Amino acid sequence: MEQRDLQQDFNDQVNDVVSRLQSKQLFQSDWDIASFAVFFIFIGVVLTLVILVLIRCCCCCCCDDDDKPHRRKVGIENYGMEP
Fold first, then answer.
1. Is the whole-model pTM more than 0.70?
2. What is the spatial distance between Cα 22 and Cα 18, in angstroms, rounded to a whole number?
3. Is residue 71 part of a domain?
4. Mind telling me which GO cellular component terms the entry cites (predicted)?
């Protein structure tokens, strides 16, 4: 019985998608358009971050000079702490 309900739900979903494609009206409401836009913006941001990480890992590892030490001073020196 449960298998039959699952199959009927799947058939209903497929028929809904096919009818939307045939009518060339994929989005029925503004909420459909908004959710579609948010989904693709999220995917775009994730892909952009992955590309930036790959660029950072691939390009910066090859271009580093081993002769130079990579120490930077951060902040200001507190001369009151020196003996």
1. no
2. 6
3. no
4. membrane
Q: What is the CA radius of gyration of the chain?
A: 28
Q: CB–CB of 20/26 below 8 Å? A: yes
Please give the tally of structural domains in the chain.
1
For 3-8, the CB contacts below 8 A with 24+ separation are none
Does any domain span residue 11?
Answer: yes
Q: What is the 3-state secondary structure (H, E, C) of 8-45?
A: HHHHHHHHHHHHHHHHCCCCCCHHHHHHHHHHHHHHHH
Please write the tens of the pLDDT for every residue from 26-40.
777 788 889 989 999
Query: What amino acid is encoded at 45 in this protein?
Result: V
Q: What is the pLDDT of residue 56?
A: 85
45-67 pLDDT per residue, tens = 999 999 999 988 887 666 655 55
